[in-house]
Every structure is written in C-alpha cells, then in structure tokens.
Amino acid sequence: MKRVGRVLLGMLLVLATAGTAFAAVTDEDIAAWVDKNKEPFFKDWVELVLIPGKSRKEELRGEWIKKKFEEVGLENVTMDPFGNVIGTMKGNPGTETVLIDSHMDTLFDIGAEELKGYYKVEDGWMHCPGSGDNTPSNIGLIWLKKGLDALKITPKVNLIFLSNVQEEVGLYGMKYYLANNPRPDMVISVDGGVGGVSAGGMGINWYKVYARTPARHTNRSWGFPSAMKSMGLAITEAYKFHERDNPEPTLRFNLGVIGGGTVENAVAEEVWVTLDIRNQEADRLKAFENEVFAAMQKAIEDSGGTYEKEVVMEISAGQIPGAENHKIVQTAVETLRALGFDPTVSFSGSSNGNAAMALGIPTASIGMTNSENGHSFQECTEIESVYTGMRQLLMLVNRLQ
Fold first, then answer.
1. Superfamily for 26-201+317-399?
2. Max alpha carbon distance in the chain (Å)?
3. Which of 246, 354, 359, 378 is deepest in the core (most CB within 10 A)?
C-alpha cells in the first residue's frame, strides 16, 4: 500500500506541475488584457499629460504619480528628498533586483490651462507637449503593476518602480537615486521610441564658453581687444575640428547658440557660445573636449580677451563590455521580436540608462511610444503605439528570470 501511495502522490505532483505550466501567462493573455484596458489607460495618460512638469518643477506630477503608486498596491511608496517617486514589488526570495525607471519631467514651463490649449486627439494621434516624452512611460509603470496583479504574474525578480525628476537637464533624479540607495542588479530604462534596445549610453556634455574684454565706444575702439573678435577667432579654431580627414563615427560636435554685446556703438565686453559635444567613450569624449577648449582658450587669450568655460549639462557615457549579451538586453530583444519588431542593439542611447551604465550596471533602455516633433510645442504621439509599449513592458517582466 505504501508503494501504491507513493505512486499516486507522484502522479498528482506531475499533474500539478503540468497544470502550472498550462496556466502560465502567455503573450496572447497580455495582449488581450492590454486591449481590454485601453480606455482607462488612455484616461490616466491624458490626466498626467495635462499636469505641468518642467524639470525642477515636477511637484504636481510627483504627487499624482505617488498617489497612483499607492492605489495600485506597490510597497514602500515614497517620494525621496530630490522628488523621485519610488515603489517596490517583491519577486521570488533571494532573487536579483531590477530597477524599472521612467522620467516624469518635461521641457516647457507652461501651466495646465495652456497645456489644454495644445491638447487634441486627431487621426489616432495625441497632440500635446510631453505627450510622448516621457509621460506614457510613467503610466506604463502604474499599469505594469496593475497588469501583473490582474494576470496573477509573480515576478521572478524583485522590482523597483522609479519615476524620477530632472532627466531632461542632466539625469539628476536618476543619479541621485543611484547614489543614495543600494545598487540594483539590472536596470530597464523606459524612454523614447518603441522598437529598439540600447545597451550603451552616449556621453553628452553641454558647455558655455565666454570671451571678455573691456567695453569701449566705437570711436575709441581702434586697435583694442574686442570680445566679439576673440570669440570669432575661437569659433574658427573650434570648427577646424570638423575638418579633420578621419572624423570619428561616434563623435558629435556642435556650436548651437551665440550671444553677447549690449549696444550697436560699443565694443562687446562679453560674448558667449554654447557647445554640445558627444561620444560613446567617456575617455575619448574628455580628451576631445580638452583639445577643443585649449584651442578656443588660446585664440581668445592671444587676441587680448579672457576665457571662461561653464558646464551647462553632463550626461554620462556608459559602455559595458559584452553588454549586448547580458540577459536583460537579450530578454528585451526577444520580447520585441515576439511583438513583430526586428530590433538591433544600439550603444548610443541617451536616457536615464546612461547613469546606470556609467556605474557598470547592466541596462536595457527601451521605448514606449512612436512620437514626432519631440521637445517642441508640436509634439504628437501615435496612440496605438503606446499600447504596444505597454504589451512590451508586461511581456519583458514576465520573461525575466
């Protein structure tokens, strides 16, 4: 009888295991759930789009997101001293921790009523500043928790949900979080266009260079230094770096804005120009910058001016050897293929993922939308693409081991 009992118990265990496998949540289950919830998802999206959230002024958005994190049942929901909103969800005991981040800030300092004036839905597109960058990703975090609960998916990893501030001005919210909390094992950074994966971060540094000389009336200016002349010579020297025979394929360099002077009939005592310098490799980026600034400084000082450089923004470069083979990146690629995309892995992303990659944390930067005219008042987002982004996010977490 004991033997028969053991046989029966074994059969029951086999049946139970088969039943569990049969009940696993499929991509089709996820798609069906997203389709069923398009209307309430869209409602949340519109509500957040119409809340102002310029970088360094994200308080109203942060409070809204914090309330939503609490409503969907995330644990340990807090707003940290920098303004980031954080919540957690436990996975299997002893497993790795994955941070999923999106940034809540937008670019334009406009109020709710003005946002309503820009907002419209037309031909399947939502028109409004911030409609794509990066509002839908924050809604994605909220609905990720809803979907995991509704579909009874217990993540195999521990999840940290992070909606952060000041991404647009230098990834400062993400940098603050990573500097003041235990480092996660992996990061999923949600920002940008759906369909791609980035496993490396492009370093992006913005600077302002000043040339200064004493001001003089035009009638007494002959033969004396001029900040305008000094800056002209400095700009000429800077653009010589565009004329090299072998331009580096990942190096980007631009002088974008110039200003200075006070009146037409006086020597300008101060003239400034902005520089945007980019490279995937942090060391090469710094070396190139040093060359450019040395040439500009020499031109300014040789012509009788004084030179000053100001840092406007710094976004860390992040390249991890073999990053494309890491499971977080490969799982993101696999997920997109299941959605019908043919993704390639990029190494020149520009998102909060850069801050994690710069610290050596394996990261997959993915998108959530198909948008056009980003960083402008004409920004618009294809509505259906956001639901594809939501499917991607749920499918990716469901696949994580």
1. Zn peptidases (3.40.630.10)
2. 116
3. 354
